[in-house]
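Students often ask why we bother predicting the structure of a whole assembly rather than each chain alone. The short answer is interfaces. A chain on its own may look different once its partners are present, and contacts between molecules only exist in the joint model. In this exercise we take two input lines together and write out one structure for the complete complex. Read the inputs first and try to guess which parts will touch.
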Amino acid sequence: MDTQHVTVTVNGEAREADVEPRLLLVHLLRDVFGLTGTHIGCDTSNCGACTVHIDGESAKSCTLLALQVDGRQVKTIEGMASGADLHPLQQGFWDQHGLQCGFCTPGMIMQAAWMLERNPQPSEEEIRDGISGNLCRCTGYVNIVKAIQQASGMLSEADTAKAEAAAQVQG
Amino acid sequence: MIPAVFDYVRPADLDEALAILAERTDAKILAGGFSLLPLMKLRLAQPEVVIDLRDVGGLDGITESADELRIGGRATHRRIHEDALIRATYPLLRDAAGDIGDPQIRNWGTLGGSVAHADPSADWPAVLIATHATIVMRDAHRERTVEARSFFIDSFETAIEPAEILTEVRIPKPGPRAGGAYAKIERRAGDFSTVGVAVQLSLTDDARISHIGIGITAVAPAAFAATDAEAMLTGAAPDDAIIRRAAEAAAAQSRPASDSHGPADYKRAMVVTMTIRAVARAIARAHGQD
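Now the answer. The structure tokens for the assembled complex follow.
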């Protein structure tokens, strides 16, 4: 079995492994690095449960080779909370009952995070378009949209508070 | 699903990639991977070597010269959709790029990858046919160009040779009073098109159609030019009646297969509807509306 070396920063931590070229990124994360928060749903790039960020761009990790992310930054659901403090999206899904079985949730949150990064205050239509590559078979999406809306509000408040604090320091 | 065993190489530049391609039989080029990897996972493709273009620079530019737009093969759908130049002048491309797959797929999938893959339901082939685009390919020795209208030969079959890499797509710059639009119907969000119709046209000062290109996808073994409809509309003062007759001619030229997207008759009916919508919207845009 011929292997190649892959070095990747996952959630801020440098990791490396010797892998077969055919190893998929999602298997590198789950089976080699033990980060099982990233789920495999359809395994055909439809459902989005395996969504992670690569150098800040959302991607379906079942449809990328581990070697394609050599030297890159990967962020997974495990990298979202700060210690005991949930990320506003995680809090939003909790508060708004944005999940039932929870299988789609990691991918949903990673995709929503990418969307809010680019569009901090999306309309409902923009949210629905933004998560159109992520399937949920439990919720009917209503509470997922609410969860993302709550997170959008929390993130904007946090930004405003930060800006005010910065203005006071400067003042 | 796990792909069969293959070698993986990541050349640093195009010359190195072309040298490997010349040497190795049964190689596949990896750009975004969102067409290639699903095929490899299903083992419908089992290349001996995968050549990842990730580190090859100079293949993802979007620039305009005096007479044409040039898009590098590795430009992603999202990059094309968000590009200021395309937003300003190429609404057909913007329509198509913004509606391919889903957001994650648009982050990775590339124009060149889609065109070289030539899925019979892909959106870009119809767009390149409608715009009379030229496709640029290189092998280790030379560069050559093929008109989009001669490029798409059959399902997953193009004019590209095994030792060539698709490097660029060139699209003629629209003149004054030009408009374009893409209309497609899909069975569910993010699915391949059931029918997709691309239209690029120009109007004369008295609002007749001076030039029109119509490319249609998903209703034949390969995307095709609706030449009968183009001939009917060229020189015409477009009204609802002639647009419908042209759309019916486009449907007559299609060769849809009945499948999970719907029966052939339904698809022909949708060719009519999508052609009417795309032509009407392209005309509105040529008039500066929409």
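Check your guess against this: The interface with chain A takes residues 1-8, 10, 30, 33-34, 37-38, 40-41, 50, 52, 54, 101-105, 107-108, 189-190 of chain B (CB under 8 Å).
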